[in-house]
Amino acid sequence: MPKPPKDIKPLLRYFVNLFKLHVTGANDPSDSVRVIPVLERSSGESIYEFKMRYRSAWKTRRMAIEPLGEKVESKSRCYKVVYDDTLVIKIPPRPITDFTTYLNHIRREHTIVRRIRKTIPCVFPEITAILKKVPAIRLPSYVMPEDAEKEYIDLLSKNPGLQEFLKIGDGFVFFMTLSRFRFFNQVIEAIHHPVDHTRNEIVKNGPQAIADYLVFESLYGGKNDRVYFELHDLTETYDRIVEEAIHKGDAKYAIPDFQRQEWLFSHIAGLRPEIDAKDLPEALLEEIEQITRKLTREKKTAIEEFRKLVYRVAKNKNFYSNRGRMRGLATNILELLYRLKKRRVAIRDLKPDNMYVAAFLDGADHILANPEAYELGLIDMETALCFKPDRYGKIHQPLLAGTPSYATPSHIFGNKVLRALYKDELPRIFFLQDMQATLVMIFKVVTGRSLFVNAARLMLEISHIKKKNVENFDGLLNVYKNTSRTFWKTAEAELSEKLQKYRHRLEEVEIELPAHLRRLLASEYRHEFKQMGYPGDKKKEKEYRQTVEALDDPVSCGFLVGFLFRRVFSAMYRPEWDQKIGSA
């Protein structure tokens, strides 16, 4: 077997064994399967082909594996696996070896799912997701689909040997079925992937632009004459030499102008041309290919400059053609936040890798511009909790984890520390953890970039500092105050810099907020206004009134990101922490 990336080896081994079961009906170690990498990458999707000889015939199939999201030390690692259908597989950071403990983990997530699934689409762990693919396990035909999960649990409880089908490596893992829905991060990447748009632009418009200076100038500006003339010279030289090659010897061949241009501009775009010339001899095609490679190498500098010109144009064109989609996605991110608050649930690890677009797009990406045509669904509820206090005034302690780019220091400190600092505001702190992720996602949808990079690095440092003080409660309080001060000052500076850097794009995407979302944002600001003791401060009252009134009109995503950040910042950061307390 070839050496795939280390972290997916156990996954590959699991599905190789499942493939053998499908082919032979038994998991015989003597049956060898060849694993052929079709596309193997250290990040992104890798594709493998399984091949084995059985009863004088070759059996083959393919599967794809892709790691999801940033690695978080205390949180499960998730992978997307395509094997018949799309699965999400979650591997805990520490192996779970007891079946009852494993089922309790699943039931905890189901508790959250039951609370929100009527208003928010969810994908959650079910042993049915994988066991229905195992030929060695079959439920009676009379079992209804809604009863399959319970039947499988009963079957595995009575036959512990079958539990091995739920294990990868040393412990149980969680399986979820995603159907044909697309991950939210894939949708964002498709919107912000100008390399492909650049290549398409070069092949589509390049020939006309290099043939006519007025076209070139209108597309790419009048300050790039040298690039135009160098590439114009390239195309003329190319046509002449290819013409000579075609008419060399006794045979006469004809290649349409459009096909010659497509071959050349595919090379200029960095693509392998799809040559469909059945009437041309192989030797001539190879000669034309060599001519094209030689000439494009000679003009390498001009071609690189041309690609950069086209990249800028394609990027802007792509942005304006996708503004409607960005608007729809940003609106539905806010809608998700609203629905979570209504159900008193905080996911605490909201991010595009843990979300999906609950609609079958399949080439119909235009519906993304209409937020009412689809919803954003959730995949991973491992860190989630209900923040409504129980009858004793307590809130369940959630898993202390969060993805650094989307998290705040409050994600990695226990309820006892947070309650000591925020008192009765603890439920709102949990809600605002999701608001922080919301503003980061809106920024990413519009710009394609990460909002917090320096602050994310600090999250890793805070985690290390916290571990040194874990036994001392007063020490933990001081660590939280001191590190939070640094984190929020860093985040504030980074936000200001990024809002300025991407201000044009953020201002170009405006959202007309539905009434219920306006009320959500206004109520958060009103709560903050009262808590901070601003009433009576004329300047603050004017600022408050103008800001709330602004929500009635279409607002830019720049305004939204800034507005949401101020609410999170004002609640989680305390000015008195500016004076360093204790030592961390």
Protein described:
The protein has helices at 9-24, 99-116, 128-131, 148-158, 184-191, 194-211, 213-220, 225-246, 257-269, 282-298, 300-321, 323-342, 415-422, 426-447, 454-468, 473-501, 503-508, 515-531, 538-550, 557-572, and strands at residues 34-39, 46-54, 57-68, 77-83, 85-91, 167-168, 171-172, 174-177, 182-183, 345-346, 355-357, 376-378, 385-386, 510-511, 555-556. It has three domains: 6-180, no CATH class; 191-320, no CATH class; 322-512 and 554-578, Transferase(Phosphotransferase) domain 1 (Transferase(Phosphotransferase), domain 1). The two termini are 49 Å apart. The chain is globular, with a radius of gyration of 29 Å. It is 52% helix and 11% strand. The protein has 584 residues and is an alpha+beta fold. It has a six-stranded antiparallel beta sheet.
